[in-house]
């Protein structure tokens, strides 16, 4: 069976959930081989093995992480040439897609983004893509080179399949072009301790109705009670109430959690584009005509400052 | 890998003493207006562009604004580059009305159905043809939302990739951006020539003024086809795509569910619903 390369999405060895999803998917398609770029493999090894990475290609030369994107694409390009994998799976995040883009050009391969599933049909890999804000499902295949597929986080249920991970070190001679941009500094915003927005199984988002940064704790408390992440509409982000990284929608993140709670959000088409594939949608809005209610499985017409705290208290009470 | 000629190859040193303005090219795409429903055409499985109103990709307004601001601060000239059908002229005119100096429009019937790979090949050829110190793009087009073109262009042109920028600073020789990341941002530096893509919120795009709209009518727009770029029709369009659509299905729209009015129990009712679905 051919190898399926899975690019590990991690921060210093802290492996993102999407990688476990990709490994799970890769196991159904061939032999999963993880590709780990940067420092921290010792931290990551256990997780990768638990989810079936029988082999891990490790490239940890310091210069690979001092330049953005290009070095990772070159590591993968080298493996595509030497290992001839059946496919390369990457996380459909901003950076994952950029790596896919460079890899595609470098190896003369087609790339598919927004994949929510990949299956083998008569010896060929077919990706199911969720496009136009989730309103259309497209089935597509790569017709040249090695299929490079960027998969949406949260599209696959990760299933453990413990194995021993064999470490294979790879040395890569970077091109001059890959060294042209240099990361001079990494700036970390304070960590909230909440799950990542695109990976969370629960997302509670606040919009213009939250009416001020000082009121966002009302949203955060419900998110914390449900063990979820906090999102925001563009109106809330534009007003400076919540960081850009939290924006859900057409020009923000696409989320597909088990539960999405929209509080004080009208449900503009650009917002819906980022959340309408959520499994269950709940909305709280003062305005009975708010379009968000058209797609909510459950809606409460009311003031979020009454409804959210009561819901938070009720969740805490039920959890004991 | 071809490194684009920085005009005469000495541009850096010449510009350091302020003799040459920085040459900025901003890539803009025309896309269907989000408010209109997007659909694929059953005949050829491409986006039905006739059925929808076309506008400048919103993210590219931020790229145009940033180009204008950098040109104003550093001394420079802004060229707009668009690949797309005739009607793309409207989007070009908008960028010129905002203040860009000139434009390059790549039009050719063979381009229909181009994917990101083909689009980046065409834009790379056009960029080599015009020359530049700095290429600016939006970080994503709102139609297909692939976000692939900027990284592909950087790879093709051997340029430093400074993408997802929320802040850009350049003195015409060095460039520094803040690259938005999930954990905060990276400060990324390079020397020009370079490629930058911007995120929204980097600036406030200006509205074209009446004067700007009038001036745009006199600004030069050069039209190029594939032969001008020495590209072959088999490398682009649907013929040159490296992936293919088998078929598609339209998801039924979500149905509205239960709606209750809060009469003091709304929060508890909400949680009871969640409990019913085993979500708490
Ligand atoms: C090209 C483009 C891209 C865009 N991308 C995005 C995107 O990525 N994400 C995004 O979200 N938007 C995006 N937008 C903006 C979008 O069109 C809407 O303007 C935005 O989503 C509105 O945010 P909102 O629902 O929070 O605010 P509003 O539309 O102002 O709605 C606020 C809602 O809160 C309710 N409310 C007020 N007070 C209370 C209260 N106390 N209790 C309960 N309810 C209350 C009101 O009834 C109202 O329905 C984009 C727009 C464009 C043109
Ligand atoms: N046909 C095109 N003409 C000019 N610029 C384009 C074109 N397609 C994409 N771009 C640029 O590439 C950016 C990202 O687009 P995409 O990779 O398609 O999401 C856009 O914001 C534009 O700046």
Can you put this structure into words, describing what you see?
Chain A folds into 2 domains: 3-179, Rossmann fold; 202-319, Rossmann fold (3-Layer(aba) Sandwich). The mean pLDDT of chain A is 96. In chain A, helix 3 crosses helix 4 and helix 5 packs parallel to helix 8. In chain A, a hairpin with a 4-residue loop joins strand 8 (124-131) and strand 9. With 320 residues, chain A is an alpha/beta fold. Chain A contains 8 helices and 17 strands. The termini of chain A are far apart. A 9-stranded mixed beta sheet of chain A has the order 9-8-7-10-6-1-4-5-11, with helices on both faces. In chain A, strands 14-13-15-16-17 form a 5-stranded parallel beta sheet. A two-stranded antiparallel ribbon of chain A has the order 2-3. Chain B is α/β, with parallel strands linked by helices and 280 residues long. Chain B has one domain: Rossmann fold. Chain B is 28% helix and 28% strand. Chain B is built from 8 helices and 13 strands. In chain B, the strands form 2 sheets. Chain B has a 9-stranded mixed beta sheet, sandwiched between helices. In chain B, strands 2-3 form a two-stranded antiparallel ribbon. In chain B, helix 3 (89-98) packs across helix 6 and helix 4 (116-130) crosses helix 5. At the A-B interface, helix 4, strand 7, strand 9, strand 12 and strand 16 of A face helix 4, helix 5, strand 7, strand 8 and strand 9 of B. The complex binds flavin-adenine dinucleotide and adenosine monophosphate (AMP). Adenosine monophosphate binds next to helix 2, strand 4, helix 4, strand 6 and helix 5 of chain B.
